[in-house]
Amino acid sequence: MVLLHGHLQVLVYEAENVGRAYYSKKSIFKSFFKGCAQNAKQAVEKTKHADRDCYVAVYADFTKLFETRIIPRTGDPVWNEQHTVAVAHDCQEVLFLIKDNDRLSAEHVAEVRVKAEDLVRNEYIHGWHTLRNIKGKAMKGGGELKLKIQLIKIPDNPVYARGINAADPNSAAVEDAFFQEHEGNQVVMYQDAHCGADLEHSILPNISLSSGHVRQSSHTNALCDMWRAMETAKHIIYITNWHFNPETKNPFDESLPNIGELLKKKSEEGVRVNIMIWDEIDSGHDFLAYTRVSKLLHGGGATEYFQHTKVSVKLMPRKSAAPQGIEKILQERWGFAHHQKTMLVDQDWHGQRYLTAYMGGLDFIYLCYDTCAHKPGGRRYEEGTMPWHDCHCAVTGPAAWDVLEAYEQQWLTLAKEYHDHLKDMHSIPGMAGPDKWALKHGGSDKDDWKVQIFRCMDSGSSNFKIDEQDPSVVLGRGLGRGKGVLIDAGLHNMYVHTIRRAKHFIYIENQFFTGSSFAWSKYTDSQSDNLVPIEIALRIVHAIEHNERFAAYMLIPLHPERPGPQRSLIMLYTWHTIIMMYKVIGEALQRKGDPDAHPSDYLNFYAIANRQKGSDPGLKHNSGAEKAGAKPNKSFIHVHAKTIVQDDEYVSISSANLNQRSLDGSRDTELGMGSWQPAYTLANAQHSQDGGGTASHASAYTDSADANQNSTDSAATYTGANSMADAGGGKSGGGGGGGGGGGHMGSSSMQNSGQRYSNSRGAGDESWNGIGANGQGVDGGNLSDQSGQDGGRYESGGGHMTGHVPPVGVVAAQPPSESWGQTGGGDQPDASGMQVQEQQQSQAQGQNQGQGQGQIQGQRQGLGQDQGEGQGHNSGWGQGQRQPEQEGQKQGSGPGQTHGQGLNSKEDFEPKVAYPKGEVYGYRMALWLEHLGGKYDPVYDQPHSLACVKRVNYLAEQNWLQFSGKEDCDMTGHLITFPIIVDRSGAVSARTVNGQFEDIENSIKGKKQPIPAIFLN
């Protein structure tokens, strides 16, 4: 097996004398009429076919990469097509299959095989290749296929130079996408439907940016902004939704008219209101379309609601672009959806109209409405839904016109009878078109955004308005091909491009996470072939091999669907995706031979949940909510967001899930954006640091810069900037102490067996357990079993934890600092004005390390005792697992009273990275603070660092203990660990009791179900 990693550039020229038909194992007759087919084969072999409908399907081993267009009725087809496709496949060969298209299926005619090792070894392979049958024998008649194929490896591709090159205006643009990147845009990023400062439980502080601006997350309210935009529209309101409920209530005041009445009113004012909604079977006019969402899920259809009004509603079945086999037709009609969530409106700015496009994960339904507090219970529970986390955005400027073009292409394909219902926006007086747009929103050049619009959509759902038979035009617009269909897989290509370009870290939130099934150990035929998971794993492998730090934070829901077999099947594929990734990383670490390294130093999965004391006694019981994992006082939080942040310089928000349905391009239809600010890149931040600008970045949350923050010495700067985290050992030498600092983000309950088990270490020794006042390390026992200040409870913002302290394999990060534990949920540090006092750091360091490492002896015992004493504890710590005992003792070194210098572990000397502090940073930080309880820690400014990884893991673990514990409490954070155990080799096992989730009857490992995999991947 050879790893092909990079891009394959393939030129398929032509074929000569494609040979004689023969019986193939792929034939549809084999199962039903085997004998007849064999006789037919012998008869047909005697006759040369000159009227085949030929196309070429290209595979890496058995994983399909692309297909050419069909050349009808010829035995000597000429394609002259060039394809560029991303690959990350361990394979033996690249296979070219010539097929004869058929209404029922497609016949395998001939094949050409190119060895993968030849592609890696040679610059390119070019020429004629003999056509062979399925047994490898040359076809009768001497048929040949002319090809040119070249592998462009990652190191040889300047596009993947780490980070964005601000000096190159096109360095972040994705070439294999339909729409180009545009400069001069304005972008607003939203988290959840509502984060208003008026909320009783708003936890988001202001976030200072290096521009001098402040991100006020509590003022970014998606539904309110969209509602206001509809109210002020003069020309168009174009909506595309997966779900649409015309009775969605006014977010400002539920007593006011709902969205249906608002749209009726605007249409009477002369605004063109067009709505596209996914159609399913039961719609009456097409028995092959699935179930009409607008009717079944909303208790009343949008078409009926808007009858006899000027609002145009089009139900959109998912239809094929070209003649397909029966299996493909059924898959598309019954399984795939129109999934994008967009709204286009015109708005006013100082007398000039401009276009704004909203996009992301929010549909106009009550299900999506939730706040950043994500309270369990209440009306959501009564209606059978969990708390809901989502992301959305608004783009104003030239890129919004690309969203308009995408809408018009789709409307003219699926609503041809309403072709005259579109307005010519370019001809409207006073409208700032894409070529006239200037930043008139009061900003400066530093506020500019470069934005590129991406889709996953094929020509069955959108008229791309190009010459489909001209290969150069198709290639120039970044389109791929399926059998008889053009495919825009821009969102998938964007994810691959972004991950490969990442220099230090990526942060992902998504509702699903399945893919790269060609690399799984089982179920490799599940057709979940997107590259996102394997690309993340290979990016981490590169970091390991080159002694670099890299971190991937993955936030996904504990279970992505409502009760039923589909949930179990999706969990099965998620499980195998995670197993594959950790296996690849574990093997890389074993090759490297670092005994202290662990896969979770680089990759971690999380979920979110919430729990609050008590419940409303008048709350009506809902069995549906209970089956979904929601209770009146505790619930998983459903992650519906679809976003990625790369190095705090690039961000994407879309409707696309990280599964094959969303990323394939010919399954569900999706739309989103990728964007960055040229003034805020890694390159610019590094330049600022080199020129003495470190303090402006390191002290974004402080009123004055620490002396260390002005130093260019990486160790000193890092220690100074992160001294609160370094000092926040939370009495880690002996036991409890330290507050929650939590949020809603919960660690994935990932117990990393064999990982480091201490928060206080000796010089250079990462498996070193400190001995506290009562002579016992905290990481091996139950906090409540210890005495004095070292035992008892972790005093957190609201409530407390009495569960077992997790092993440092998950939580080798420092516990919360004592100053946070004393807040008791009261005043939280404001991220825009928090001062990190050196004296406070010193005191915390001295207390939390037991008067300094120089005064503490470490016993290298690993986990000589059971990790947890409560057998069967929900968090999974009571499984009696043990870490091998280690002999000997190690004396800590260094004075314990120095400021921020008490620890001498690997993470203390990690180089500090100067990250950009623009709006992307503000958005990522706002998400983290929402999930982690609103309390800022300077270590979050170094997300690539081992210290940050361990800090987040620590807090996620504490949140998991609160959520899963028997004692009722108010969780201090939402982020919890995903319930898996990872050992040093990368082997993964379930952490939950008996492999089951606590509140639902489902296994974390999932289970094979009698459902076609293609529908759910």
Structural topology:
Elements: E1 2-16, H1 29-32, H2 34-44, E2 54-60, E3 63-67, E4 78-91, E5 93-101, E6 106-115, H3 116-121, E7 125-130, E8 144-153, E9 181-191, E10 207-208, E11 214-215, H4 222-232, E12 236-241, H5 259-268, E13 272-278, H6 293-296, H7 302-305, E14 312-316, H8 326-335, E15 342-349, E16 352-360, H9 378-382, E17 388-389, E18 391-396, H10 398-414, E19 449-458, H11 471-476, E20 480-482, E21 485-489, H12 490-501, E22 505-510, H13 532-545, E23 551-555, H14 565-592, E24 603-611, H15 623-627, E25 634-636, E26 638-639, E27 642-646, E28 650-654, H16 660-663, E29 670-676, H17 682-698, H18 714-721, H19 723-727, E30 745-747, E31 769-770, E32 794-795, E33 800-801, H20 808-811, H21 818-821, H22 838-848, E34 857-859, E35 889-891, H23 919-931, H24 946-964, E36 975-977, E37 980-982, E38 988-990, H25 1013-1016
Parallel strand pairs: 12-13, 13-14, 17-26, 22-23, 23-24
Antiparallel strand pairs: 1-4, 1-8, 2-3, 2-5, 5-6, 7-8, 9-18, 9-19, 10-11, 12-15, 15-16, 16-18, 19-21, 19-29, 20-21, 22-27, 24-25, 24-36, 27-28, 28-29, 31-34, 32-33, 34-35, 37-38
